[in-house]
């Protein structure tokens, strides 16, 4: 990811990530890709939410792609055709802070002429006031920190070290435990959305990747009801789950080559195949303690 920063973000603290210099910038207490800080600032200052907008939110590698596919399909149910057949979910739902650089969706997120389904990795505290104060709904997906870390390790090795040895996993654990990774600190990001969802359950739906895996029909129905599009027809839930399933999406032509990095294993507990007990202890004593205090994941 290219580093670029304007006057607004130039003086903010920067650190190396995955051996790439100055790739992360700290803004409002969280680490972001340096190139995304300016678009994030613009979003916070300029975005005006509509009451019927829906904002998906997540830390990277927690199930964003799945949530995009599910939410898009729920909001479009009843319409003919299945856009997922020919579009990667990231091309259907723009990630606000990276859309100006990636142009995945070719969409002006500031065009408020119709309701929008958008996504961001930004923490709750920096969301625009109009998102917080309007009736716009927020859906957050969280995932166990250990599986997120392993998913992140594979992903950033593809992005930053394609032709080199992967970053030693021990060093990835260091980045993770110190909170120096996109969206970090992990526990602070989760805590902000978790606490706000408890305070305003009508405003924020807090989902867990593991629960969607273990109780897919129940969790998908929760999303549909929250978005005001409950399932009414026989077989609808099953059909939608199949459409958005890892197994189906991974095999589609559109999700091969460049998009293949979004579909790795899609399993719960894969961390057990990678983390040593020392690495596990380090995570438990840092990220784990904070999440345990919230009653989450530990
Ligand atoms: P793994 O690396 O553990 O396989 P994100 O979308 O936030 O980048 O998260 C990526 C993780 O979600 C990856 O986890 C990926 O395989 C998994 N994933 C992607 N699509 C999925 C789907 N339709 N169902 C379940 N998991 C999915």
Short description:
The chain has 298 residues and is α/β, with parallel strands linked by helices.
What does this protein structure show overall?
The strands form two sheets. This protein has a four-stranded parallel sheet with strand order 5-4-6-7, sandwiched between helices. Strands 1-2-3 form a three-stranded antiparallel sheet. The mean pLDDT is 95. Helix 8 runs parallel beside helix 14 (277-294) and helix 9 runs parallel beside helix 14. With 298 residues, the protein is α/β, with parallel strands linked by helices. The protein has helices spanning 7-10, 34-46, 64-75, 89-92, 99-102, 129-133, 145-160, 169-177, 186-199, 209-214, 216-226, 236-243, 246-251, 277-294; strands spanning 14-17, 20-27, 30-33, 54-58, 117-120, 137-142, 204-208. The radius of gyration is 19 Å and the shape is globular.
């Amino acid at each position: 990811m290219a580093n670029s920063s304007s006057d607004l973000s130039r003086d903010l603290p920067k650190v190396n990530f995955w051996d790439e210099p100055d790739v992360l910038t700290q803004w409002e207490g969280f680490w972001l890709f340096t190139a995304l800080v300016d678009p994030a600032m613009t979003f916070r200052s300029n975005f005006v939410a509509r009451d019927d907008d829906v904002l998906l939110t997540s830390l990277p590698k927690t199930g964003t792609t799945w949530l995009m596919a599910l939410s898009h399909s729920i909001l479009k149910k009843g319409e003919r055709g299945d856009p997922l057949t020919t579009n990667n979910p990231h091309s259907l739902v723009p990630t606000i802070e990276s859309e100006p650089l990636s142009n995945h969706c070719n969409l002006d997120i500031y065009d408020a002429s119709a309701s929008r389904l958008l996504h961001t990795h930004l923490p709750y505290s920096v969301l625009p006031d109009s998102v917080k104060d309007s009736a716009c709904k927020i859906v957050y997906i969280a995932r166990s920190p250990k599986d997120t870390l392993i998913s992140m390790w594979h992903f950033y090795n593809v992005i930053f070290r394609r032709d080199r040895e992967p970053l030693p996993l021990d060093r990835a654990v260091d980045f993770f435990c110190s909170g120096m990774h996109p969206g970090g600190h992990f526990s602070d990001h989760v805590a902000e959305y978790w606490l706000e969802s408890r305070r305003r359950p009508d405003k924020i739906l807090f989902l867990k990747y593991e629960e969607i895996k273990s109780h897919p029909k129940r969790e998908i129905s929760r999303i549909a009801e929250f978005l005001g599009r409950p399932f009414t027809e026989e077989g609808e839930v099953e059909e939608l789950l199949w459409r958005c399933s890892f197994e189906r999406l991974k095999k589609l032509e559109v999700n091969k080559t460049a998009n293949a990095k979004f579909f790795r294993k899609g399993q719960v507990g894969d961390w057990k195949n990678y983390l040593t007990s020392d690495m596990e202890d380090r995570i438990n004593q840092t990220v784990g303690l904070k999440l345990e205090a919230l009653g989450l994941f530990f």
